[in-house]
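idk why but the lab printer keeps eating my pages so im just putting this in chat instead. protein + phosphoenolpyruvate:
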Amino acid sequence: MDKYTGKALYNGIAIGKILFYKKDNGNIKKSAVDDINGELERFEKAKAEAIRQLKELHKKAVAEAGETSAAIFEVHAMMLQDEDYNDSIRNIIIGQCVNAEFAVAVTGNNFAKMFAGMEDSYFKARAVDMEDISDRVISNLKGKSFDITLENEPVIIVASEITPSETVRMDKNKVAAFVTHHGSSNSHTAVFARTLGIPALMGVNVKEEWDGKNAVVDGYTGTLFINPDEDLIKHMSLKQNRDVCDRNTFNEYIGQETVTKRGKKVRLYNNIGRVSDIDSVIANDAEGIGLFRSELIYLESNRFPNEDEQFLIYKKLCEKMNGRETIIRTLDIGADKKVGYFNLKDEENPAMGYRAIRICLKEPEIFKVQLRALLKAACYGNLSVMYPMITSISEILQIRKLIDEVKAELKREGISYRIPKQGIMVETPAAALISDELAEYVDFFNIGTNDLTQYTLAASYQNEKIDDFYNPHHKAVFRMIQMVINNAHKRGKWVGICGELASDASVTRRLVRMGIDELSVAPMMTLQIRKIIRDME
Ligand code: PEP
Ligand code: MG
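predcted complex ->
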């Protein structure tokens, strides 16, 4: 039995087999082949398999997300059968006597470049699809799975690094734990692991040879055991069962009000990223959704999600929440949340760069699609909208102008809509410092302590080397929170926290004493936080 340590992101125990996840970085080797016909046949087989996989995916996606969202898999299957694409691959194999992997990679690249250079945004977006279908065929040629499809039994995903978009491509019910070498414990991969209640370790010197081995992840001590012996498995199973029991004791807080003994009521909401997370919101009896990270819809797609697709998702959220407040944050893409079809350039300093509301205001044609979907969906429930990365009043005024335009368009088109309550994220020191003025323009504030901490302390949450400098408990962060609460209350507005600090049980009492009105926490933390608040004098 071997033992390794790392930084634990979520307390919990996982026991299972390791799946070593390796990124295919596109380094396909060119090699000469003698059997040209055999190589052509390999390509045909890999392509047929890809089409079969896409049909399956389409079926699954129709059931889970509806016909519109699923359509992309049909498009992919069609693209794979495109004559020009196939001719190019065959010509390279025959003309250069090379391996099919190389021919597919070169063709995929050429076609992607051609699409990327097109004016029309629809065709531009096909560039990513080209890369996607080619990667799928290459994976089949190599006999590897392309989708981050996981075994039936939950597995421990081990990787050098996992990006947020890779995290969202995995079926979370099949992930027992994450173990990575790189990545900061404050990154979004870590945030997602905590949101889902999945034990995770970072900073472990991972090895590919672990693939398929039995392992145990102890998220309490930050230990990974490879080839654990019987005694350890027994001991860890007991610990796992104890976790379940602890969770059961919290269950007695289901249906109870989140209120201190003196009667101070705190709204206890949840942070989520998908419609399917609502089951967990309801199971944990949260009183609303304080942060729906709408960028996940974009991260999970390989083209811009259209108005109908978004509308259906927001409508479903409202309906499922059945009258409970549902705060949808508008697109917060950029920085560590990137997706190919946005064609975002690499920046020296992405966290301080072109992201979130800055993209939305510079590219209103993208933003307005989301605003239209939100205003339409607001008719179906208690929907509120929240804007990320605000630094000035002028941004709010620009948003208002766009809302007015969208409203006028919908009216002209005879489409029903409702103007929801609108708030902003306070996640920049600028917003905190002028919160007295901003309060007049919004219905509520929601403090994003993840970004507020990194900007206040000049310490990126993505840099594992400075994890110790990234301290959400820093006096400066708490002073800002207090300032925002005071400024909002003076103008009769409410303030919540939806950053990770809200889920940090060690500061719950302090935040409540400071006057916080709402805490939006990871679903798994809801009942534990409710217990703390109910036990408060
Ligand atoms: C935050 O910054 O605290 C926040 C909730 O936003 P993000 O999605 O960037 O973590
Ligand atoms: Mg943020």
